[in-house]
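Thought: the user wants the 3D structure for the chain below. I'll pass the sequence to the structure tool as-is, report back what it returns, then summarize two notable features.
Action: structure_tool
Action Input:
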Amino acid sequence: MAMPRSPAFLAATTCGSRERCGNDPRGLARLRSLVITVTTSRERAVGMASNKGGIAQLAPVNTDNVHQRVYMQMRQAIMSGKFRPGETLTLRPLAAALGTSVIPARDAVLRLVTERALENHRRSVRVPLLALEELRDVERYRILLESEAAALAAARASDDDLLAIEQASARAEKAYRSNKIERFLVANQEFHFAVYAAAHSDLLQSIIEKLWLQVGPHLGALVDSMRESDLSEIVDLAHHQELVRALKARDADGARAALAADLEDSTDVYRPYRDGDVAVHG
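Observation:
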């Protein structure tokens, strides 16, 4: 699906420089009005930054290599479900939450739009609303690629890799036992990516990350529907345990099967909900 670039975030390319449009009052006014389409009131910006959306869960970044750090934190926030499907992002509250200027935030947003993690919507950007069939496609490809990564990890994992996997598994189990749903989702992601890192395939991991960028917000929506639930009734950690055993035994087929079973079971847990006519689930 084509992702048209929003003038709201590409205004700098409209004039290119002050020299090119500085002598054109209309061009200069246009440049100023299109640079960012966000709330100009400081009070409203602070209010939006303090809401309960994904922006409120971001933390200020270290100013070293700030553009990359802003991008990585936003990327991680999307993958771990801190943003919800359809949630709109505006630049000033986003930059304020990250403790940076608007420019690094804008650049990160543009990168995430090209990765389909965000999409242009009117004069702003939002987290995509995926149709039910699109989500099913994502889950289908996740099973194919992530189970292959698990098989590669069984053959390639170092002792340090296996230790990191076991530690991530223990964190997920701790969150599970204490029924901390949001903490469990984060720990679950850490466990999965510890396995994928052990495959030592940068290409495969980058593809898997792009799929998680698609499904992450729907995992966040899942949290909203599970707040009163008991994790033990809807999540079974047996597949994690089987996967760890297979990896330690260097059993590629067993690792592949355990990972595929874990993902297949997780799709049964996802509870669809609707936003208008758009079916969304995690």
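Final Answer: Structure generated. The chain has two domains: 12-126, 132-280. Residues 1-22, 27-51, 271-282 have pLDDT under 50 and may be disordered.
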